[in-house]
Amino acid sequence: MPELPREDPEPTEITPSAGSERQYPEREFTVKARTQTQLVLRRFLQHRLAVVSVFVLLAVILLAFVGGPLWKYSYTDITPDNSVPPSGNHPFGTDNLGYDEFARVLRGTQRSLEIAFSVAVLATAIGTVWGAVAGYYRGWLDSLMMRIADLFLTIPILAAGALLSHHFQTAGWWALALVIAGLAWPAVARIVRGQTLSLREKEYVEAARSMGAKDGRIIFRHILPNVIGQIIVVVTIQIAFAILLESSLSYLGFGVQPPDTSLGALISNAQSALQGGLWWLFYFPGIFIILISLSVNFIGDGLRDAFDPSQQRVRA
Amino acid sequence: MLAFALRRLLVSIPVFILSTFLVFLLVTWGADPLAQLEAKNPPPSQAVINQLADQLYINHSIPARYWHWFSQLFFHGNWGPSVQSGTDIGQLLSTSLTLTARLVIVATILAVILAIIAGVVSATRQYSKTDYTITLIGFLFLSLPVFWFAILLKQAVVNMNNSLNWYWLSTYGANTPGLTGWSAFSDAIGHLVLPTIVLAMSSYASWSRFQRASMLDVLGSDYMRLARAKGLSRRQVMIRHGLRTALIPLTTQVALDTAAILGGAVLTESVFGWQGMGTMLVNGINAGDFNVILAWLTVSAIIVIVFNLIADLLYGVLDPRIRHA
Amino acid sequence: MSGTTRRPLRRRWVAMCASVVTGLLLAGCGGSNSGSGSGGSDTSISGTAAADTFNSGTPKQGGSVTWTIEKTMDNWNILSADGNTFDYAQVVNPLTPSPYIFNPSYSVTLNTDLMVSADETSTSPQTVVYKIQPNAVWSDGTPINADDFIYNWQVQNGTDANIAAATTTGYQDITSVTGSDNGKTVTTVYKTPFGDWKSLFTNMYPAHIAKEHGNNEASFNWFQTNPLPVSGGPFVVSSVSGDKTSVILKRNTKYYGKQSPLDQLTFRAITDASQEPTALQNREVDGIYPQPQTTLVNQLKGMGSQITYKIDAGLGFEHIDFNLKNSALGNATWGKTLRTAMFTATDRNAILTKTIQQFQSSAVPLNSRMLVPGQNGYQDNVTQFGLGEGNTAKAEQLLTSAGFKNVGAGKGGLEAPDGTKIPTFQMKYTVGNQIRLDTCSLFASEMAQLGINVAVTPTDNLGATLTQTGGNGYDIVVFAWVNTPFPSSANQPLYTTGGGGNYGGYSNKNVDAWLAAAASSTDTATQISNLNKADQQISQDAYTLPLYQKPTLIAFYPNLVNVRDNATSMGPTYNAGQWGLKS
Which of B226, C32, C106, C196 could bridge C36 with an S-S bond, Cβ 3.0-4.6 Å? Predict the structure, then answer.
């Protein structure tokens, strides 16, 4: 196995049908060719911060979803300890009503992650299909679909989110996630469309078309798998974006409402806690937001480098 | 070029009109202008409620309401009545816009300058300690909730003021009432510093990453090597060929980010108690003030569309490789 | 009277009865007392004589003070439904004359700067004669006279449907307002007796300015959007910022009473209460009056002797209400037993411990719906009926002996004596109000002990929930009423059959009669005895349970004198004309 990293051609173009890594064409080289996945993984592993971030993120997710239910206090438990600083019994202290801040932060993290992942998955799914269809068919359909996407881009998401989530205040977190996703997809659609436009002219797409493949099959089997790199990067951006947007909305009072809580809502309630000496109420939820968002951003950066190594080459 | 500009302008008009319709639907769905009045205690009489409903024209079908609003606005320059007492929407818009523009413009300039410096330094010293530090800071700001940072900053400044017994830097509002002349000016600057830093930092983070990437792109290109080969100094190459080319994507990115900057301004204003566009929106939503929210979203749509247009045009002007028929 | 609106951090309740006065009477109540030192205190003094002299002293001449309000100055007419807001009243107080002052001790005293006398000269028909000081003038020199009384009566008596006045209470009972003696004597005659006549004619707007702006309706609206061009109080409007976030008042040099020591009084709007301590600490304002909250109070404590703060028990109070329109709660045969058992199991002390006692250790449960401690005639009308003591055993016993089945937790749910299954009750609180949410959570867990299910859900429209309009409604609700120094007229609509604020549909003929007697009587003793009789009956019927007085919080720099809390609807600026800086 040669250990030196290869100078790759554009990685998204090397496989005629990247959907299946196993069917790799015969090559004349004696060395075993690496699959796309292997290449990406190799490059990703070189990004040390990104690798660390994966572990951090996994740890946070585990803590929130597994640790939360296991922890001795629930986020709704009113403990007899009011406003106590962090201790063995209350690792993150308690607030003035006796809520265990650790339980609340875990619950908040859970909510924030649920919202962020739902937004990312929904917005990416809608945006990907929308962008791919527009880019593949081009012409008037493309114009129409992209103008519609443009329409959504003229509305600042924070404003529309605030307007609508106010309406949904009593409906719960999923309504909030729906609203954010409903406004975030056009950004994804733009990126996917751009990629599709160039991919649809490739020979292997022509070939598939001439063999009578249906449009749907071409889009989903031949084009989208080759955009997967960009899409994954977009997903990470969306997650980081949604975490911050949710916290912003909660800060303004338009997000998750009690008795439920989120990281943004926790900070919003702890605004004056910092000066009031209850620093733990302010710092812990903030640190969790930063942990999640920072690790997601680093993972995104690592993935970008892995899927598109051109940025690592410097010749000047 | 002119033809392209005109064509883009013409396309923008229907986009704008449809955008106002979408916004209108959003607001009809999201805001109940009668809620506040109905919630009053003692409850107002049905006649008073009906009177407001009439004024707001809300007992009609949505297309009729939309047309009423649209024609009032574009043929009569009338934003419609507000349900918040004593509020004239046109007047509110102009004072809010002026205030927010002050904040946004200063912050954007600051963010762009910082982003360029950081991006260039980072790219030219790729993988150096400097690069790592700048990158880390960039990522940190990218991942920070704006308001969290703002609250920390505010508290730090208050503590500093208290220990210095010097209260130039302010944490609330855009100015101290009742000052004139030089002291008013100095006071306004003292109020501007903190929100500007906060707003600038949130844009700086993504722009510095962006600038670094496009700088790397340019540095790796053949013409850069050619310029070096011609015997130009490293500095000359950097500035004249490298930076100039690498600025094009950033310029358009800044224009495209307008909507996000407006969103950031809403948060910043909320933390620092500025009575600008952000406060106008938040108050409008809390009061279910239909026409105020509508006015806000319409103005922001205009701003976003205009800046998208500018981004498109700039791209054509700045990048000689793009020629428009 | 008003339900507290949502998001307690950012709003304050709308003041009731549009009753605000400029007070200038109490100057020179001796030297400063121990209460005026810096640092903080949460010993309640409101309603006692000490409240009237807190932080009193002799100010030096000159200086400027910046006070905080929590809304931008969008409406200048506090008599209007739209403008009837506590914060606006703070600004309008020093600009408009009132015959009576509502003091921090809850006493109501004649404003002798403005009035020579005000007397009830006859009870049948009820007649009140006001004599105005001969030198009392508006700041443009126009005398304050009967025209002003007539104008303020006409716009608030409800005869013109186009005028959206905040309240018509009392004014609608007046038949005529006539002037004599060059307008300096005003005679008001009532068609129906109105006991709380001293609450009327507070914050009078100038009739001669109104005349310049059309008919009553037009001028009433004009006053909403325009700062008062003249003043009948110690200050006069100097400027208003374009964004309405600040109002600068200057000393009214034509003032007929004692001149204000301050040259300038600035009001600044800070619309987010949680930011007020920071602005205070950064010397951007000199004083604040936010709704207290643990973290906010901690923040003030952190400033140590740099500032003075005072936490006091206010006139507003939180309470839990049942909706008797619910078929179980309002059941004619066993509903009362059920309600009594539920309130018996409610532990008010537990609620207090978790909520306001965190920052006001002296807080105690409130035992009256009609009056608060410090008000004349306050007495415990609650505990003798066992309500609010958190006695689950007694509650269970009540239910069991009345024939209820499945009493207690985990027995499959309570059943009424006639076999009806007690349904899950919907308990509502204002969205985002953590303290009310916790009150509801505690209540729900106590009810679970009895085998009663209570589902706690937020409402984002308390008004609609209370009035049960537009698909909203409640079975149990927790919210606040704000008392006034005039309990008779204020409480009548809340518990009278079909009354405007009687959202839960309570009806008792005796209560109706007692409340009517209190409202029409001008004798304090009669008023009080009737109110207490009604209160006891309501306790016996277990319709509502008062929880605690909402605390108030005032904080300012110690160099300010004569600045003090006033828990009545007049608020701290009731004596703004006496405010000054320490010499």
Answer: C32
